[in-house]
Amino acid sequence: MELALKAAAAAPAKSSRSRRKAKSAMPMVVKLAYRNLFHDRLSFFVTIVGIVFSVVLVAIQTGIYLGSERKISAIIDAAPADLWVVPLGTKSYDDPSLLTGRERHMILSTPGVANAEDMVVSFARWRKPKGGTTAILLVGTGAESSYPLPWNIVEGSRDALEAPGTVAIDQSYFPDLGITALGDRAEINGIAVDIAATTKRIRSFTTLPYVFASIEQARMLTGANEIQATYERVTLADDADLESVRAEITERLPDTEVLTQDEFKKRSQAYWLFQTGAGAALIAGAMLGLIVGIVIVAQTLYASTKDHINEFATLRALGAGAGYIVKVILMQAVLSGLIGYLLGIGLAFGVIHAAQDTKLNVIMTPGLAAGLCAVTVGMCVVAAISAIIKVVRIDPAVVFSR
């Protein structure tokens, strides 16, 4: 109380007589808010812990959501095309079924088409070297492709996949696939294959590991004929009109869907994140973090205001307006938010760094970090409403009744 009364003596009157006093109002607001905030160390600690928990939870949940979006569309992003020709009714990239095999030649004969590339995607059975089986998602592309898969190769090379009986897998799936090193041998659908290349941080959204092969190898392993594919990736001529070409291909191939790169990407993301409920769960987790943060900060600010009610009444009796006291409370909220955000975002970055080489893909972008700062400060300001309501109802006469 003594600290607050000392600060009150320097508070500007509502009708300031000089510009100098008006300019000193804001620094005094900050000073008073700082002293109120740190006066009760235990309450301050509880507040910061609540904000840090909220920041970390929102950051991780949102980061997982963004990481999930990126994982779902990883193959589509790595092998872009102007148009994708997919089997009718395809829900997402990893919902594969084979085309008939005549599509590529019909696409190439369409005016405005510069090239069409086959891609085979299929579920398969992987037998581990030491026994046991697991399901995989086999992906095959041609070596002549503009964007041959896989990428991020750390051992071996893409050219090594052109040899018969060779595949590439990601290092993070070694335990799942029973692999220990480059050169190990396993079986896909009963056919022996050698690990000719390994990649880093290419993970699927589902639990199924990606296994990459040449287009010929993928056809042989899945039992497709030599002209069949799962998807056709279409590149247009420079002067071609996308919608006109799409309409022509759709007319020629009525049992397929012709999607743009963005449409196929968003369809795949929407299916896994919303139709399956995975995205809703992540969003709900982030909202829970915000609610917890608001409740803890609101409770602490209200308790702090109640404990200092006599000091605030003294300020009112000395001529400080309700607006000035509201500024003090809001400044307390902002200071709490900034301190909690800095600690929380630092901890979140630590978690994200630790998860880089795991199956959990968490992403932090500059936009997300900035947005999270605004949300955290906004959360604290909203939480200050209960304290503000309490303080604006103060009767200055309270100070004379003690």
Describe the structure concisely for a colleague:
By secondary structure, the protein is α+β, with helices and mostly antiparallel strands.
Topology:
Layout lengths: L1 H8 L9 H5 L1 H15 L1 H32 L1 H5 L4 E5 L15 H6 L4 E15 L5 E9 L11 E4 L9 E5 L3 H4 L7 E4 L2 E9 L10 E5 H8 L8 E6 L5 H11 L3 E5 H15 L2 H30 L1 H9 L4 H33 L11 H18 L1 H8 L10
Parallel strand pairs: 3-8, 5-7
Antiparallel strand pairs: 1-9, 1-10, 2-3, 2-6, 2-9, 4-7, 5-8, 6-7
What is the percentage of strand-forming residues?
Answer: 15-25%
Rg (CA only): 31 Å
Number of domains: 2
Query: Number of helical segments?
Result: 15
Main beta sheet strand tally, sense and closure:
6 strands, mixed, barrel
Which strand order do you get reading across the main beta sheet? 2-3-8-5-7-6
Topology order in helix (H) and strand (E) letters: HHHHHEHEEEEHEEEHEHEHHHHHH
Whole-number mean pLDDT: 83
Spans of at least 5 consecutive residues with low confidence: 1-25
The total beta strand count reads 10
The shape, in one word, is elongated
Structural classification: alpha+beta
N/C terminus separation:
14 Å
The share of residues in helices is: 40-55%
